[in-house]
Amino acid sequence: MNLGNADLINVIRVNRKLYSFSHSKKSPLRHILNLPFGWISVHIGSGAKPNRYEGGDQCALEYTVYLKFGEFDANGISKNAYRRPRMNLEFLVFYCDEHFNIDTSDDGSKWPTPDLYINDHPEKAYFEYFNLKLKYRGLEAGLGAVQAFIWYIASVCYRVKELTLNINGEEIWKAMAPFFEDNNITLARPSIFIENFKFDSKALFSSRLFRNGLNEVSCYEAEDSKGNQNDFLLNDKILKSRDVMICDNSIGDGHVMAFDLSSVIILRLEGQTKITAKGVGEFFRKVYAADESKISLHFAFFHSAEKFEYEDVLAAASDIPSLAEITQIIESNNGSKEVQSVLKCTSGRSYKVRVKKQIYYSIASIETIK
């Protein structure tokens, strides 16, 4: 069957007969699916405009895509599994013969299929893990090779339990997006890191790749194709991610309250945000009021251009009944004031609340203590 591992798993889940067939001792599927758990990390660069010399038409390096992959240890499905790297590949795209010829990277055209490069490269005999570079003429050839490698890794080498995408290039992502839409690389929730990137957030997160949601999301100055950050930040896939890190000056109290506490475990909102003491206090009340059996969040961090103090946060969350409060106040000579407090509430739960006021900004964090 010419299907990837993720597709094969979906097929055998259809009914008991197919499941039994796939697990039979004589079944070829049993051996195909008996692969180690692996991980893939793809870094899509922003690219560079042609570097044209005066009086000439030569151009330097245009694009770079980094592909790193490896496998988990024997406890690959555990939370703290060790990720053992196997290979770090760098795909270089050139548009002129001069720079292509003087570059010392391997010529990608001499390695027509990923299996030859991964399994037969001379360095494999000397190193368990190594870094390699492949160069290509033109974006189509370079991205075609990247996609072929990803497909080979996910279909022949590993059952991919962790896929990470680092995107800071609009043009390359548009060229890569159909590949992830058409190919089932992993059944797990992928992680995505976005930086200085304008895109259609609705189109991005409606991709087949994100159908099960996001494991981790990190955004730096990201916005949708219309330049609107708010619509992007309030996307349902982001609000229900397990680990969220967003650095954006447009974040306000409304964004803080929108996150789903039953899904989010770690929340970090940084930058010159507009989050107020009232917003932090109301979020604290939301954490406290949530059903303990459903809440997942255990740490939230807020960076704000607003200058507020610990007392302001508690005032906004004044209806939270506490049995005891252990407070430590730390003041410095530069005008900053930090308050750390452990609140033991009547529900039996405890929270560590920290507020640090600087001259130009405030930092607040809430940590649930089990």
Notes on the structure:
This protein is of the alpha/beta class and 370 residues long. Among the domains are: 1-33, no CATH class; 35-163, no CATH class. It has helices at 5-12, 16-22, 28-32, 97-102, 114-120, 139-157, 170-182, 201-205, 229-233, 236-239, 253-258, 277-289, 310-316, and strands spanning 37-44, 63-72, 83-94, 106-107, 130-137, 159-167, 191-195, 198-199, 216-220, 223-224, 243-247, 266-273, 299-304, 322-331, 337-345, 350-357, 362-369. A 15-stranded mixed beta sheet has the order 4-5-3-2-1-6-7-9-11-12-13-17-16-15-14. A two-stranded parallel ribbon has the order 8-10.
Give the arrangement of secondary structure elements.
Blueprint (H helix, E strand, L loop, with lengths): L4 H8 L3 H7 L5 H5 L4 E8 L18 E10 L10 E12 L2 H6 L3 E2 L6 H7 L9 E8 L1 H19 L1 E9 L2 H13 L8 E5 L2 E2 L1 H5 L10 E5 L2 E2 L4 H5 L2 H4 L3 E5 L5 H6 L7 E8 L3 H13 L9 E6 L5 H7 L5 E10 L5 E9 L4 E8 L4 E8 L1
Parallel strand pairs: 1-6, 3-5, 4-5, 6-7, 7-9, 8-10, 9-11, 11-12, 12-13
Antiparallel strand pairs: 1-2, 2-3, 13-17, 14-15, 15-16, 16-17
